[in-house]
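Q: Given only this backbone (275 positions), what sequence would you predict?
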């Protein structure tokens, strides 16, 4: 099968590229980090149209977003809102033109109306359903990251523990999240492409570990694996305001996560200790 991955250099995208290649599938990588021609904000992007027309299945993972530090600083800026609005307009227009089966990467934050990021993802869900695509809500996917300047919380904590022997937290750590190991995420995305016609396009599919864990507990797991000190902050979570929307579990009919949080953290830690 010929897969097109929009956002192929991102947190999920670069893992999915390798996962599909390991299964001997053809993968078209499309990301602004590759070249200016792959900027999804370009109206009537000719290169995008060529790749969409030629692919068998499309993963729409591209979005101007990284971890909570980035969101806290930029999600309410004009540039952030404008960039993501343009990306969705260009990509969904191309999908509509060529009527390709596709999956849109949404977020569990799409239900948080106070968040501009969540609201943009919610708009993307409406686009997706209008085009009969699959809406997939991700829950804090973690794994080895390329851009360490924009690392997410687990990678950020691991690097602090490895390099500084201490984890300085941005919050008091009481907020709870559900985390999903990148390899498990890729297995789910691949399976969804294979059973695309069986899946209900009117539903949202949440892919998660389906286990709540506090951010402080994440730091404590890392401390078990590598000696370090933990320094919680006094600040509360201002990104998700510690809201907990339980995901539906309809995806569990077709796929189940395999990797425990501790096992996933262990694998990432071993990688960063050896680079």
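A: Predicted residues:
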């Amino acid at each position: 099968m010929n897969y097109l991955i929009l956002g192929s250099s991102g947190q999920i995208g670069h893992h999915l590229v390798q996962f599909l290649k390991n299964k001997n599938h053809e993968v078209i990588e499309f990301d602004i980090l590759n070249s200016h021609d792959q900027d999804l904000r370009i109206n009537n992007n000719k290169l995008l149209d060529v790749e969409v027309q030629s692919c068998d299945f499309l993963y729409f993972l591209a979005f101007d977003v990284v971890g909570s530090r980035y969101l806290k600083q930029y999600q309410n800026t004009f540039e952030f809102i404008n960039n993501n609005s343009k990306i969705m307009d260009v990509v969904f227009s191309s999908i509509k033109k060529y009527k390709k089966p596709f999956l849109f990467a949404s977020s569990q934050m799409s239900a948080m109306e106070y968040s501009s990021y969540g609201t943009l993802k919610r708009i993307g869900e409406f686009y997706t359903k209008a085009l009969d695509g699959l809406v997939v809500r991700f829950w804090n996917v973690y794994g080895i990251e390329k851009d360490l300047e924009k690392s997410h919380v687990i990678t950020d904590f691991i690097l602090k523990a490895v390099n500084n022997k201490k984890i300085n937290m941005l919050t008091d750590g009481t907020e709870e999240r559900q985390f999903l190991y990148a390899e498990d995420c890729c297995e789910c995305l691949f399976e969804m492409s294979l059973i695309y016609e069986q899946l209900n396009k009117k539903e949202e599919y949440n892919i998660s570990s389906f286990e709540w864990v506090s951010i402080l507990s994440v730091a404590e797991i890392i401390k078990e694996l590598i000696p370090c000190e933990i320094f919680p902050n006094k600040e509360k979570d201002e990104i998700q305001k510690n809201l907990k929307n339980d995901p539906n579990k309809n995806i569990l009919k077709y796929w189940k996560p395999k990797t425990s949080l501790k096992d996933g953290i262990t694998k990432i830690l071993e990688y960063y200790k050896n680079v």
